[in-house]
Amino acid sequence: MEKILVIGCRNTMDDVCIGCSRCLVAFNRREGEFKRYEGVDAEIMGILNCGGCPGASIVPRLAQVKLWNMPLDEQPTKIHLGPCLADNCRYYDALVGKIRAKAGIEVVEGTHPYMPAKVWG
Ligand code: SF4
After folding, report:
1. Which residue's C-alpha comes closest to atom 1 of ligand 1?
2. What's the pLDDT tens digit per position in 30-78?
3. Out of 31, 76, 78, 95, which could bridge 26 as a Cys pair, Cβ 3.0 to 4.6 Å?
4. 90 CA → ligand 1 middle, Å
5. In terms of residue numbers, what domain contains 33?
6. Residue whose CA is closest, atom 8 of ligand 1?
7. How large is the average pLDDT for residues 85-103?
8. What Å distances lie between residue 77 and 84, 89, 120, CA to CA?
């Protein structure tokens, strides 16, 4: 069973991308970067914001995910980074570097494929 932790940008998730619904819809439909789970037993076990600029708290936040979920015997097996983070974050490379260095599980860049190309047209 794959257990997915989605990480996004604190400044935008649930404010710009209301309810983080596009990540959840894409996962349920196995679209975008979730296509890899077609026919695979998988769940989203958490949606985590980065902790805010400049992303200094991301590693302690991952540790908190581990801590809070220990009594539940639930831990992520994969991390997915939302486009809110990739498309907007000026600290992206450093943030992803820290996540990759410390997570100890596979980190996939991307979630849903629904970013509109243009506002009009
Ligand atoms: S560090 Fe990046 S991802 Fe986090 S709030 Fe700031 S811009 Fe968004």
Report:
1. 53
2. 999 999 999 999 999 999 999 999 999 999 999 999 999 999 999 999 9
3. 31
4. 7
5. 9-16+27-109
6. 9
7. 95
8. 21, 24, 39
CA dist., res. 101 & res. 96, Å (int) = 8
Q: Is the pTM of this model over 0.85?
A: yes
Q: Is residue 69 part of a domain?
A: yes
Residue 103 lies in a domain: yes
Within-domain flag for 72: yes
Q: Tens digits of per-residue pLDDT, 6-22?
A: 999 999 987 888 889 99
CA 98 / ligand 1 centre spacing (Å)? 13
| Minimum CA distance residue for ligand 1 atom 5 | 52
Q: How far is the CA of 41 from the centre of ligand 1 (A)?
A: 31
Residue ranges lining ligand 1, Cβ < 6 Å: 9-11, 50, 52-55, 85, 88-89, 91, 95
**Is residue 80 scored above 90 in pLDDT?**
yes
Report, as an integer, the average pLDDT of 89-94.
96
